Amino acid sequence: MxxxxxxxxxxxxxYDSLYVSLLDGLGTLQLLIAVCENDALRYEMIERYEQxxxxxxxxxxxxxxxxxxxxxxxxxxxxxxxxLTDYSAQIVTVLGAEKLDSEALKKFxxxxxxxxxxxxxxxxxxxxxxxxxxxxxxxxKAPDFWRWRGGIFLFTLQIPxxxxxxxxxxSAEFSSSSSxxxxxxxxxxxxxxxxxxxxxxxxxxxxxxGQLGKVYRQxxxxxxxxxxxxxxxxxxxxxxxxxxxxxQPSDFLAENLNNLAGLYRSQGKYSEAEPLIARSxxxxxxxxxxxxxxxATGLNNLADLYESQGKYEEAEPLYRRSLAIMxxxxxxxxxxxATSLNNLAGLYDSQGKYAEAEPLYxxxxxxxxxxxxxxxxxxAISLNNLAGLYKSQGKYEEAEPLFRRALAIWEKQLGKNHPLVASSLNNLALLYKTQGKYAEAExLYRRSLSILxxxxxxxxxxxAISLNNLAGLYQSQGKYAETEPLYxxxxxxxxxxxxxxxxxxATSLNNLAALYESQGKYAEAEHLYQRAIAILLATxxxxxxNTQKVKMNYYQMLAQLSxxxxxxxxxxxxxxxxxxxx
Length: 582
Description:
5-stranded parallel beta sheet, elongated, 582 residues, mainly alpha, 68% helix, Serine Threonine Protein Phosphatase 5, Tetratricopeptide repeat, Rossmann fold, disordered N terminus
C-alpha cells in the first residue's frame, strides 16, 4: 500500500502519540482506543504504524466475531493460529466494532466490561478501533474497561472547528479535558517518549508540541489549571516550538499562531497577541480564500481582541465581514451565524448602542432555539446576553425571566453545582443588587461563591471574581467591615494566580481603592489607584475604557483635596483638570 495522504495537524498528532505509545508499550498489556469513522483513513493509519513498527515487533490484525464479539476470544484465536516468534514483541490491531449491529453490541459491551483479568495473558499493546459514536457508549456500558484504557487517539477527515469554553464543557462527557480527547498527562508522556526516540528538535515533534500547547491553553481559558503562571509559561514554550518548526505557511502554523495569541490574550498581553492573530488570518486568507468560514473565525478573533482593547471602530468592520462570510457560506440560519450575530451585538452593547444590539441578540436567540433546541447551552448564552442588555437599559422586568430561564437551562444541562451555574447565579444576583434587592442578591452571590470554591478550589481566579462581587454588594450597603477582607482576598488570589501586572489585578486595586476612599482613607486609596493605572497603561493602553475609568475615579478623589494640597503635589495643568471635576 502506498501512503500518500497528507495528515491534518490533529491526525498527525494522534498518529505520533499512538506510535510512541505502541513502541513504548512493547512487552506489556496496553489497551489503546483509536477512534475513526472513515474506513479508508482507518486502514491507512493502521498501515502507517504497522510499517513503522515491523522492525521492532510482529504486527497482527484480528477482527471481532459479528455473532460473539469477544475481544479476549479473538486474541486467544490469534495465539492458536499464529507462530509468535518473540512472545513479548507483539502488537495487535482489533477491527470489526464499527460493523456490529445493536444485538451484537450488547454482547460486545458485556464481554468488554468483564475482560480485564482475562487479558493479562496477553502482554502486548492492543489497539481497539471504534467509531466515535461508540465511544460514549463504552464509557457508560464498559466503565471498568474504560478506566483501564491507556490512551484515546482521535482521527477525523475534517479539522474540527474550535469550541468556545462554554460549548466545550457542554459538548460531551469526555470534553472536560479538551476537544481533541487528549489529556495533558497523556500528551506530556507521549512527548517525553518521543523526545527520547527522535530528539528534542525533530520535525516529527511539531504536531505534539502544538497539540499539547493547545490543550494547556484550553485548560487555562476554562479555568482548569493548578498554577496559572507555570502552565501559561509551559503552553507558551510549546506553542513557540511548534511555530518555530513550521517553516512554511500552513493551516498548522495558522492554528498554532492563533493558540499562542489566545494564550497571550488570557494574560492581558494584547500587544503580543495582535500580530499573531493578524498573521494567522493572513495565512488562512491565502490558503483557503477570503470567503472561507475559517477566515470568518480569524476575523472574529481579531475583532474580539480589538474590542477587548476598546478599539471599537477597528472591531466593527471585522465582525461585519465575519458575519457576511458565515451567512454566505453556511446560510442565514446556521448556528455559527448566530454566534457572529451575538458577537456583533456584544460590541454594540459595550458601546451603549442598545437599539442596534437588541435585534441582533433576538435573531441569534431565534436561530439557536430553532436549530439547537430550547434547552441547549448556547440558547442560555443568548438569553443571558439579552437579559444583560435589558438590565443595562433599566428594563428589569424583561431581564429577570431571561436570566432565570438561562439559569434553569444550565442547571438542567450541567447540574446545580457546575461553574457555569455559578456564573448564571452571579448575573441574576447583579440584577437584584441593581434593584436594591440586597437580601435576594446576597443569597445568590453566596451560593455562586460556594459552588466555585468547591468545584475550582479556593484560590481560583473565578473565585476572586465572586469574592469581588459579594464585596461590592456589601460596599453598596455601607458594610465596610465585611467588604474589606473580601476585596483583599480577591486581590491576593489574582496576584498569586495571574501575576501582579494582570489587568484583573488592576480591577481589584481599583475596587479596594474606592472602598478606602469612601471611608476617607485617601492616602491608602491614592497608592492603589496609582498602581492600578500603571498596570492598565502597560497592558491595555491610555485609551482603553478601563484605563479611563480608573483614572477618572482617581481624579475625582483628588478633587476632594484642597487647592493648596493639589498645588503641592501636581503640575498646574493637572490641578486645573482636577478642579474642573468638582
